[in-house]
Amino acid sequence: MTTHRTSVAVVGGGQAGLSTSWYLTRDGVDHVVLEAATAAHEWADSRWDTFTLVTPNWHCRLPGYAYDGPDPDGFMTRDEVVAWLAGYAPTFGPPLREHTRVTRLAPRAEGGYVLDATGPDGPETWEADAVVVATGGYHLPIVPPWAPALDPSVTQLHSAHYRNPEQLPDGAVLVVGSGQSGAQIAEDLHLAGRQVHLALGDAPRVARTYRGRDCMTWLADMGLYDTAVAQYPGGLAAREKTNHYVTGRDGGRDIDLRAFAREGMRLYGLLDGLSPDGARSTVTFRPTLASALDHADAVYTSICRDIDRWIEARGIDAPPPSTYEPVWEPPAEPTSLDLGAEGVTSVVWAIGYRPDYRWAEVGVFDGSGRPTHTRGVTSAPGLFFLGLPWLHTWGSGRFHGIARDAEHVAGAITSSLRTAVAG
Hints:
- By secondary structure, the protein is of the alpha/beta class.
- It is built from eight helices and 21 strands.
- It has helices at about 15-25, 40-45, 80-85, 180-190, 215-220, 255-260, 290-315, 400-420, and strands spanning about 1-10, 30-35, 60, 65, 95, 100-105, 115-120, 120-135, 140, 155-160, 170-175, 195-200, 210, 215, 265-270, 270-275, 280-285, 335-340, 345-350, 355, 385.
- A hairpin with a 5-residue loop joins strand 6 and strand 7 (about 115-120).
- This is MSMEG_0569 family flavin-dependent oxidoreductase.
- Keywords: Oxidoreductase.
């Protein structure tokens, strides 16, 4: 087994890992970026065919590299994002080792860390004074523990593996989850003419445009993407919030689930499980549909009113305000669905991911397996995290905030290395 030595090992070659490498390269810090597959591969591997960004293209900026295309207020497709990211590494030549999967991280008795990995030529070991874990926070797709008990004739897949309607067998589809992925996949299937049954969670929504501008451009001007998580109501609990659903498809528009229902999509409250009578093709729902729709609309309206106040306080010349009026109300609270009777042949689980850091043998994780840190800096000397949702701000899990986070972590790294040398 080959043993390598470096000052800093960055685990993960996505936008977070490459952004860290940009600053370390600039500062002349010896380091390596270890990537299990290929740089930024997740953008091609885990998005569906009609995926688009939900943030405007001008948000797309990495250290030393920003979107400079013809449509800054538009929304890049999956393939356009992949192409844009592919142009990043060549601008500064990071010490990137692809197809090198880290399988274990552990502290060394004499200080620093040891990383076991499997590279193109077999097992290898890396010794480093500092480590940046930049593998993101979305590792294991979540499906309910009772999912295997569902009728085996029903195809099941997670949103991470959904690509297009043609991938699924003919018939109706149950989409579970109304966050960004669930709402957009439901729309994709709906536009393809599929009968869609959508089980809603508690995700909020946001207007695509309001008073003449994209809402996310207003929110950026208002500093929402720059506010530290500790300053938000509820503090660190903001890290558990679900992002607002909206779409950048076809130039960008609202996702209004009430409008979809008026067009024939069937909506339900929170999915509870299999029918207690033992029927393997019948699922049950909590009576939360009306409250879920009302909550999403309330957040939508609240954001619009915040923008109104911002415009008024600064005397900005903008089109007049407007108010959303619900276009559909649920006539009842459906509490069950017989998949067989309704012709449902597929279920798409869009209920998120859980972290998986079992390979990291360092005591910095909480009871749910998430790293504990302050702006990416952990209590373990020389160990850092980057690329997590709400690592520091709402922008941390987006292109909008990654450069700031990477600069902070890179600065903390160089400080820790100087301290180690001085000691």
